[in-house]
Design goal:
Blueprint: E1 5-13, E2 16-21, E3 24-29, E4 41-45, E5 48-53, H1 55-72, H2 94-97
Length: 98
């Protein structure tokens, strides 16, 4: 299984970009998303950008990954990392509503 990590571009380099996640810098292949400017958020799998993200979506993914990390350490107080889901009824996607 491969987990996508949200990373932010520090410095574009054509078909690659120097990106950062939690202070760790990596050179990321940009072939699937094309050139992007510094500051852009990406969803990265195995040092390859697969999707351009907005900042809110990048934060949600980072929070979910932090929740997994805490759960693996036995922590059960993780609701604050899912603020957009807590106290909300599940919603079906449009294509399943009919």
């Amino acid at each position: 299984m491969c987990i996508g990590i949200p990373m932010q571009i520090i410095e574009p380099h054509g078909e690659s970009a120097l990106c950062v996640h939690n202070g760790r810098e990596s050179l990321i292949d940009m072939m699937l998303v094309g050139p992007q400017p510094a500051g852009t958020w990406l969803l990265v799998f195995l040092d390859t950008a697969r999707e351009v993200l907005n900042e809110q979506k990048a934060r949600q993914i980072a929070d979910a990954l932090e929740a997994v990390h805490l759960a693996m350490q036995g922590e059960s107080r993780i609701d604050h990392l899912f603020a957009d889901l807590v106290d909300r009824e599940p919603q079906l996607p449009e294509f399943l509503k009919s």
